[in-house]
Every structure is written in structure tokens, then in C-alpha cells.
Design a protein that fits this description.
Blueprint: E1 6-10, E2 31-32, E3 35-36, H1 37-47, E4 52-57, H2 62-67, H3 72-80, H4 84-94, E5 98-103, H5 110-115, H6 118-121, E6 126-129, E7 133-136, H7 142-153, E8 156-162, E9 172-180, E10 183-191, E11 202-204, E12 207-210, H8 213-220, H9 231-241, E13 244-248, E14 252-255, H10 259-272, H11 277-290
Parallel strand pairs: 1-4, 1-6, 4-5, 8-13
Antiparallel strand pairs: 2-3, 6-12, 7-14, 8-11, 8-12, 9-10, 9-11, 10-13
The chain binds uridine 5'-triphosphate (UTP).
Uridine 5'-triphosphate binds at residues 10-18, 27, 56, 104, 107-110, 112-113, 130-132, 257.
Length: 291
């Protein structure tokens, strides 16, 4: 049994890269085919063995909480019409996990959002999953890969992936020493560096397992020029004080906060679904022939 029982999912950002869709609806509720992105993330956490999910939400994001609750009218109507299977799809989402939500009153950055979860997480190690990074892993969920590393090494860890130079400035980039293939001891993390200042090409895509000392570090972090408290600054303090590991996870990651990343994820998820795979291939062929 893993020591990690809780996962924090920050979902309080403004989602400005996806306007106008995010004007009146949370980015996290945008579906990949028929499943809101946040449900895909919650499913990854639950499949990894997480028991309690701490959602960090904000004003106008009530639909996220409602999604993980029962929808009495919908379910009762479906049952009355004999559509038991559909009613069950709706109900099953409410049974996924123990979901607790906390508020981030102002979008003051990812580090600040994680700090809002402290009263629920308490003095336990915990996972963090970002809502707009979807990962398809063939064998083991990306979060579970980090949880196993934590259980073995007892140190906080982040998932990393190698990115091309042109994408370096979009991520937190690690500096570190490689202990064996795919594993690093992190010495520094630089948030969105220029290529010339990047210590490596290893980027953090949005999966973490952290010890509770991160909260004390985040409380010391001063807001950057954008006024945001960066999780990266807390990770640097973790690396310097308690140690931080990085691991290249098995899996393909999709940045669904980005328009092209969203199309990529939609196609990949469609091709993985037996009910959609064949027709999706036909559609893709049709468009390829036309262009
Ligand atoms: P992003 O920077 O990708 O999300 O943060 P954003 O701020 O919503 O999007 P853009 O850049 O304006 O388009 C990664 C995750 O952290 C959460 C977001 O909801 C997202 O899931 N986040 C970000 C918070 O919870 N609070 C914040 O203050 C900032």
C-alpha cells in the first residue's frame, strides 16, 4: 500500500489560453470527446490508488463540484425512461472518490493554489496533478509511477520529459545529476527559461508527489513579476532542503490547455476507444484525401 492517499488538483486558473470557451465555463470542464478533462485527471488519480481528491476551485467553477456529485433530475428521468445504462454512467462519476473542494479566492499562481489545500492535506505526502496535462500511459498511470518512486526513496519527486528547444520556455526546467537512466537528483528548477539560460531540456509537465514541508516553503515564496506564487520556487527550496527527484515517466502527455494539444489529445483518445476508433480513422482519411 502506498503512503500517498491524497491528490491535489489545482483547477482555479483563468484558462485565458482557451478563450472564448473559458469565458463562462471552467477550462477543466471542456470535454475530450464526452468526458470533461478534469474527470480524466481524477480517473488517473483514482486508478493510481488515491482515496481523497482535493480540488482547488474558484468562483464560477461550481460546475466542477457538481460534476462529481449526483445529478438527481437527470438520473431519475433516465431511469424512468428505462435508460439505466446512461443513468449509471452519470451516477458512477459521483462514486469515483472522496472529493473535497477548497477555494482559491484569487488566481495567485499554482504555488498559491497548492497552498490552499494544506488544511485538507495536513501532514502527509500527497500527489499533485495539473488539470490541463493529460497523460496516456500503457502500463502504469503517471501518478502511480511517481507514488512508487516516493514509496521506494522517501523523497518528493516530479515527472519530467525531454522537450525540443523551441518549447523550453513553456515549462519549469530541471538542473540535476543523473543517478541512472531516467532518474535525476534535482539541484535547481528554472521556471520558463530562455533556451540560453535553460539548465537542461528536461521539463516538468504537471505530475508531482510532494512532502508536506512544501507548504512551509510556499509560505516563504514571494510573488514573481506576474504577481503569482510559483510552485517552481517551492520545488527549488524542497530540492535544497529535503531533496527532490525527477523521473522520466512512461506515457504520452498532451497539453490540452493549448489549442493544437487539445486536437492532438482528442484524436488520441478517440483512437483508443473501441467504439470510436474505426470511424475516427475513416474521418481522418477523408480529411487527408481532401487536403
Ligand atoms: P495554467 O497556467 O496552465 O492554467 O495552470 P491557467 O492559468 O488556467 O491557464 P492560462 O495560462 O490562463 O490559459 C496550470 C493549472 O494550475 C491551475 C489551473 O487551473 C491549471 O489547471 N491554477 C493556475 C490554479 O489553480 N490557480 C492559479 O492561480 C493558477
Amino acid at each position: 500500500m502506498s503512503k500517498i492517499k491524497k491528490a491535489v488538483i489545482p483547477a482555479a486558473g483563468l484558462g485565458t489560453r482557451f478563450l472564448p470557451a473559458t469565458k463562462a465555463m471552467p477550462k477543466e470542464m471542456i470535454p475530450i470527446i464526452d468526458t470533461p478533462m478534469i474527470q480524466v485527471i481524477v480517473e488517473e488519480a483514482v486508478r493510481s490508488g488515491i482515496e481523497t481528491i482535493v480540488l482547488v476551485t474558484a468562483r464560477h467553477k461550481e460546475s466542477i463540484e457538481n460534476h462529481f456529485d449526483y445529478s438527481y433530475e437527470v438520473e431519475k428521468t433516465l431511469e424512468e425512461k428505462g435508460k439505466k445504462e446512461l443513468a449509471e454512467i452519470s451516477k458512477s462519476v459521483a462514486r469515483f472518490a472522496n472529493i473535497i473542494s477548497v477555494r482559491q479566492k484569487n488566481p495567485m499562481g499554482l504555488g498559491h493554489a497548492v497552498l490552499m489545500a494544506e488544511p485538507v492535506v495536513g501532514n502527509e505526502p500527497f500527489a499533485v496533478l495539473l488539470g490541463d496535462d493529460l497523460i496516456i500511459s500503457e502500463k502504469k498511470q503517471a501518478t502511480k509511477q511517481l507514488m512508487d518512486l516516493f514509496d521506494e526513496m522517501g523523497k518528493s519527486c516530479v515527472a519530467v520529459m525531454e522537450v525540443p528547444e523551441k518549447e523550453i520556455s513553456k515549462y519549469g526546467i530541471i538542473a540535476g545529476t543523473k543517478s541512472k537512466e531516467g532518474f535525476w537528483t534535482v539541484t535547481d528548477v528554472v521556471e520558463k527559461p530562455k533556451v540560453s539560460q535553460a539548465p537542461s531540456r528536461m521539463a516538468i509537465p504537471g505530475r508531482y508527489v510532494l512532502i508536506p514541508e512544501i507548504f512551509d516553503h510556499l509560505k516563504k515564496v514571494k510573488p514573481g513579476t506576474s504577481g503569482e506564487i510559483q510552485l517552481t520556487d517551492g520545488l527549488v527550496l524542497l530540492a535544497q532542503n529535503q531533496g527532490l527527484l525527477a523521473h522520466t515517466f512512461e506515457g504520452i502527455r498532451y497539453d490540452t490547455g493549448d489549442r493544437l494539444g487539445y486536437i492532438d489529445a482528442t484524436l488520441a483518445f478517440a483512437l483508443k476507444r473501441p467504439d470510436l476508433r474505426e470511424d475516427t480513422i475513416l474521418l481522418m482519411k477523408k480529411y487527408l484525401e481532401k487536403n
